[in-house]
Write a sequence for this structure.
């Protein structure tokens, strides 16, 4: 099965985003805090 160029680029950007997000957090707890903070921000906007 061939994967087209657009799908590869999207996958690359998603993986790069995850790597940057994880690099900003030194621990798994930090990732959880970031996710919780994002959820609270979305709830405040709603």
């Amino acid at each position: 099965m061939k994967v087209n160029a657009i799908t590869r680029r999207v996958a690359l950007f998603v993986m790069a985003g995850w790597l940057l997000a994880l690099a900003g957090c030194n621990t798994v707890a930090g990732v959880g805090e970031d996710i919780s903070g994002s959820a609270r921000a979305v709830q405040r906007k709603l």
Notes: The chain has one domain: 5-45. Residues 25 and 32 are 9 Å apart (CA to CA). The chain is about 80% helix and 0% strand.
